[in-house]
Amino acid sequence: MKKNDILDVTIESLAFGGKGLLKIDGKALFVRNSLPGEKLRVKVIKSRSGFAEAIPLQTLTRSKYYVEPECSHFKYCGGCSLQNLKYEEQLVQKERQLKETIEHLGGVKDVEMEPIVPAPDVFHYRNKMEFSFSNKRWLTEEDEHKPKDFALGLHVPGNFEKVLDIDNCHLQSELSNRILNSVKESTQSEKLKAYDVRNHNGYLRYLVIRQSANTDDLLVNIVTKRDEPDKLKKVVEKLLIDCPEVTCVVNVINEGVASIAYGSKINLLHGDGNLHERIADVNLEIGPQEFLQTNTKAAELLYAKILDYADFSKDDDVFDLFSGVGSISLYIAPHVRSVTGFELLPEAVDSAGRNAASNGILNCKFISGDMRELFRDLDFVKKAHGIPDVIVLDPPRGGLHPSIPKRISQLKPSKVVYVSCNPASFARDLKLFAERGYKLKKLQAFDLFPHTPHAELVSLLEYEQK
What is this structure's pTM? Predict the structure, then answer.
């Protein structure tokens, strides 16, 4: 295969990340925007010694797994790129990808997995959506009536500055869509300028909508470039008229150049400034910039599996690394003697402490700091926090710093329950644990993100003396 070659191919499966995959003479060919079983005419756009990449030119035979996407934005939006693939086949592909990734990158042969757990809801399941304001709208033939210098929606794939204007996102609730359109209308009528990511000017940066699944709370966060909350007064007034269900509105200020919906200052515009959620019997208060699994109903199933795999005893002392607002710590607390949560963000640690107090849970404590620094002096860790029988990990997408598996293994917990949203980083870390005597015993995937290439996993690693 050479660059610019035109080929007729049949897609065999989906690769990790969602691209179609097939092999030609032992060489992998990745094809964008394709489905398993689809026969396509493609153009090779990149060729390397071990792989090539292509784009589809023409569909010759449609996949038997194809379904008509429900979303009118699907053609351009990359938010749920698998919406045209039957849900049952999405699960098949995700389970296969996870197994192959762990075998190839983790060095584990013949991985045994429990069947992937489907999402309770395949649409309207997200409790958080983040939309971008932009002064450069992605132009489509359907949007000729919309202003070119204003958009509120999602970035189109492969373009860092242009935003596809969204009216209706099927991943969030109908109420959240009403909020989206109310804010869009009022910010335009107030002539508030959308942000320009290239020149770093403009006022409006992001709209973040967070909706509880098990309470009536709904938090709206309008992220702006400058600390000028008075400009949002009429926007908030209209929002509360259009959507009286909104319980909290905040304005986060991000004066930096990084394209993130986070900032150093939060202005409270309505409500108490927090989202209140309940997972099983645990009530949680979550700040506007704090993390919670974005699919609450599926997360409840995942948390139950943590309990199942850990098989805690009442005498167990547990470390919960990357504990966030304490959701996992507080969930497992009734089943163990103690839980010590470790978390980088001080504000999340503060929330975790409040959540423990409000739930009447007395056997949890939370420590703020970088994991690499916190676990550098293990003698201090043992003296200050004891020796854990079990460690629970739920790290960010990038996984663990290489020093962490080493430090954990020196503490010699009998079990490590590792939760991950990234099979590749999990497989890398799994290899490091294996080198230190921990063996993968159980593994199950959970589909927290239908219609996307992503999945969550829970695993059990047990220490085996060499």
Answer: 0.93
